[in-house]
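Z., the sequence and structure:
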Amino acid sequence: IGSGCWVDTDPKTNIPSVASCTSGVGEFLMKNLTAQRVTSSLLSHEHSDEALQIVFQELLQQPPQESPKLC
């Protein structure tokens, strides 16, 4: 698995249950372990939209030198 991908297991069942692959602003995504953060959030939240919103809000609240340019 490359550095922009992550597979995680549900700690209750120990069966692989979530995989994530990131693409876009590569260095920022990999440096911040975005794929890992997405899978962890998906495993710990009941609703996927809520889980993703939390991760993206955390990433966008970082200082400007660490955040990607969105435009």
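The longest helix spans residues 48-60. The chain has three helices and two strands.

Let me know what you think.
H.
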